[in-house]
Automatic annotation (TrEMBL):
Leader sequence segment: none
Source species, domain of life: Bacteria
Pfam family, one: DUF3159
Lineage: Bacteria, Bacillati, Actinomycetota, Actinomycetes, Bifidobacteriales
Species: Aeriscardovia aeriphila
Name of the protein described by the UniProt record: ABC-type Mn2+/Zn2+ transport system, permease protein
């Protein structure tokens, strides 16, 4: 129990701010899909988003190529992530993305150092890609494509009737087809990462593995996001421009008949 009731309010406010920031991030991505103009910068999180995603891996890769020291390379990558967290704290920005990056680099560095194998710095990335691949495959098997789930959850939060919520957008054949095609595209991206990087890991090509991780990171992500925008955006804009169906139509018709009678 907190000694000061104000502590509870502070914790609630902090949690609310975190949820709001994460929701705003999701909304911004969906808003980009609905926009008539594609913004490469917005799709990859701007310059800061690119630096936070690319720089730690790049630092580890370059440091290891030069020194062949796992601990030194991991520490330098971790310091880079810590700087990003500190910068966001000073600027009073959402630090969740930076903290997640710091934790991921810490786990990756520990995996490499404890096993005395630099390849394992990249092992958590395999698990993440495999996890996303599995989630997307499940969404495809259930005919509830992951791209559609993300977009529609932003538009209409899941209610107490998930079946009705799902039917509200699955029934739109063209939009559902675009969701389905773009979801397959994201599965191809995660599958390609595994197909390219795993053989390099198995054959101990650590330097090439680092390069592949960078190439198949932000650049590939931006390309797939753009293709998703090409397929989904026109249909989302068309769907949003349609007038909403009148509510309680079935209830209004009997009332009109009674008036006519």
């Amino acid at each position: 129990m907190p000694e000061n009731p104000g502590d509870t309010h502070s914790e609630v406010n902090a949690n609310s701010a975190t949820v709001a920031n994460n929701t705003a991030t999701a909304n911004s991505k969906v808003a980009l899909l609905e926009s008539s103009h594609f913004s490469l910068s917005d799709s990859i999180g701007g310059v800061r988003g690119v630096l936070e995603s690319v720089l730690p891996t790049l630092i580890f890769m370059v440091a290891f190529i030069i020194s062949r020291q796992i601990m030194l390379s991991s520490i330098l990558a971790g310091i880079c992530c810590a700087v990003f967290v500190l910068a966001r704290l000073i600027q009073r920005q959402n630090v969740m993305q930076a903290i997640v990056g710091l934790l991921l680099v810490a786990i990756s560095g520990w995996a490499a150092y404890s096993s005395h194998d630099a390849r394992n710095f990249y092992t958590p990335g395999f698990l993440i890609n495999a996890g996303w691949s599995l989630a997307i495959i499940l969404s495809l098997l259930t005919r509830t494509p992951a791209v559609g789930v993300v977009v529609e959850l932003v538009h209409t939060p899941l209610s107490s009737a998930p079946g009705q919520w799902r039917r509200s957008w699955v029934s739109k054949k063209k939009l559902f087809g675009a969701y389905l095609a773009s979801t397959w595209l994201w599965l191809a991206l995660f599958g390609l990462r595994l197909a390219v990087e795993l053989p390099l890991w198995l054959t101990h090509h650590v330097d090439a593995l680092g390069i592949a991780r960078l190439v198949l990171g932000i650049p590939a992500f931006a390309l797939v996001f753009w293709l998703t925008w090409v397929w989904v955006s026109p249909l989302l804009r068309t769907d949003s421009s349609k007038p909403a169906a009148p509510e309680h139509k079935e209830e209004q018709e009997p009332q009109q008949k009674q008036k006519q009678g």
